[in-house]
UniProtKB/TrEMBL annotation:
<keyword id="KW-0560">Oxidoreductase</keyword>
<feature type="domain" description="Proline dehydrogenase">
    <location>
        <begin position="55"/>
        <end position="318"/>
    </location>
</feature>
<keyword id="KW-0285">Flavoprotein</keyword>
<dbReference type="Pfam" id="PF01619">
    <property type="entry name" value="Pro_dh"/>
</dbReference>
<dbReference type="InterPro" id="IPR029041">
    <property type="entry name" value="FAD-linked_oxidoreductase-like"/>
</dbReference>
<keyword id="KW-0274">FAD</keyword>
<dbReference type="GO" id="GO:0071949">
    <property type="term" value="F:FAD binding"/>
</dbReference>
<keyword id="KW-0642">Proline metabolism</keyword>
<protein>
    <recommendedName>
        <fullName>Proline dehydrogenase</fullName>
        <ecNumber>1.5.5.2</ecNumber>
    </recommendedName>
</protein>
<dbReference type="InterPro" id="IPR015659">
    <property type="entry name" value="Proline_oxidase"/>
</dbReference>
<dbReference type="GO" id="GO:0004657">
    <property type="term" value="F:proline dehydrogenase activity"/>
</dbReference>
<dbReference type="GO" id="GO:0010133">
    <property type="term" value="P:L-proline catabolic process to L-glutamate"/>
</dbReference>
<dbReference type="GO" id="GO:0005739">
    <property type="term" value="C:mitochondrion"/>
</dbReference>
<comment type="function">
    <text>Converts proline to delta-1-pyrroline-5-carboxylate.</text>
</comment>
<comment type="similarity">
    <text>Belongs to the proline oxidase family.</text>
</comment>
<dbReference type="InterPro" id="IPR002872">
    <property type="entry name" value="Proline_DH_dom"/>
</dbReference>
Length: 347
């Protein structure tokens, strides 16, 4: 990937728990409560170590050792099992064992100059996940750049308020906000009323946040508002060519004009939308931007199932896009051939 011009890789250990709003069921590898065979399951017992959290810690640390400097590690916190998801569903921080595992993961990643993207997951767990991400950003993003990024899902109606709250905390506590922006991948299982009514609304929300961050003006933060814009590192994860190309062009324009902006990086999933990734890479005119990453997910077949299912749903849209790109190319080839033909046959 790096030989092809990508800046680096994002690696994710796939274990996760997905909450289906319509059935109120949780699906994942470690969703069942631990049995008596595994001993005392009380998280308050001093010597108790939850095996699911330990398995997640091991898988995640293993992933760090597959990365190199400037790569990213993406973490799905619900992969640590029922004790963690119970806390998230209540909007709380997970048990201390999980917080310790996260500290170990963050320290090891930082030592290797690897950054961490905390993935956004089902709405049912998201409040707790976001709380953890904020805690980690407050602790590890104090060197003028983001080691930890929280993921903001533009399809949620609540995201502008969440983001404003986090910008305020970053301002007050003086840390860099890692702003990873996605549209959101849980439409098939999340509560529909929480998500924008139309695709166009989601697109507008995505582009407004991305371009607002690049202009250092979001809501009341920035010189058009009443509050300072905090230090922000932007990470645009998307297969939407229009969004990413517009963001890169805006960033480039602002850098060249000496206007204030924030650092930005881009990513697409491994095996999807290569056309978007390569179009971005082709826009590099020698200054090393845009910085593009590919995201690869690993795990056993069982662990990867929910991830693969979401990609199958997204690929339906991607196939439609491929078809329209193919038709556009065919039209362009025909237009050029016609121009050549009419030139050679003219007197
Ligand atoms: C590197 C990387 C990391 C990612 N990490 C996460 C993550 O942590 N959490 C997460 O949730 N997703 C994540 N995603 C998935 C990402 O959200 C999906 O790729 C995205 O949903 C597809 O949107 P798009 O930006 O590629 O654009 P498009 O393909 O243009 O948009 C499709 C998206 O638009 C939205 N949408 C579609 N129809 C409607 C409708 N009728 N009403 C409202 N909205 C609609 C949905 O979000 C849908 O997925 C990640 C993607 C990448 C590339």
């Amino acid at each position: 990937m790096k030989d092809m011009g990508f800046r680096g890789m994002i690696l994710t250990y796939a274990a996760e728990t997905v909450f289906d709003h319509s059935t109120q069921a949780q699906n994942g590898q470690r969703v069942t409560a631990l049995t008596s065979k595994q001993g005392d399951v009380s998280i308050n017992a001093p010597v108790y170590q939850c095996p699911s959290i330990e398995a997640w810690r091991e898988g995640t640390v293993q992933t760090i050792y597959m990365t190199e400097a400037e790569d990213y590690l993406a973490v799905k916190l619900t992969g640590a099992g029922v004790k963690v998801t119970e806390a998230f569903a209540a909007g709380e921080l997970p048990p201390q064992q999980m917080m310790d595992a996260l500290d170990e993961v963050c320290t090891k990643a930082k030592d290797r100059k690897v950054r961490i993207l905390v993935d956004a997951e089902s709405q049912h767990f998201q409040k707790g996940i976001s709380r953890v991400a904020l805690e980690l950003m407050r602790k590890y993003n104090r060197d003028g750049y983001a080691t930890i990024y929280n993921t903001y899902q533009a399809y949620l109606k609540s995201t502008p308020v969440t983001l404003a709250n986090h910008l305020a905390v970053a301002n007050e506590d003086g840390f860099t906000l890692g702003l990873k922006l996605v549209r959101g991948a849980y439409m098939a299982t999340d509560e529909r009323s929480l998500i924008h009514d139309t695709k166009e609304d989601t697109d507008n929300a995505y582009n407004t946040i991305a371009q607002g961050a690049l202009r250092k003006n979001i809501g009341e933060f920035g010189d058009k508002g009443s509050r300072d814009f905090p230090s922000v590192n932007l990470f645009l994860a998307s297969h939407n060519k229009e969004s990413v190309v517009a963001a890169h062009q805006l960033h480039k324009h602002r850098v060249m004009s000496g206007l204030p902006t924030v650092p930005v990086r881009f990513a697409q999933l491994h095996g999807m939308s290569d056309e978007v990734s390569f179009s971005l890479l082709q826009m590099n005119d020698g200054d090393g931007t845009p910085e593009v990453y590919k995201c690869s997910t690993w795990g056993s077949m069982g662990e990867c199932l929910a991830y693969l299912l979401r990609r199958a749903i997204e690929n339906r849209d991607a196939v439609l896009r491929t078809d329209s790109e193919y038709r556009a190319l065919k039209k362009e080839a025909f237009r050029r051939a016609k121009a050549v033909f009419s030139l050679s046959s003219s007197p």
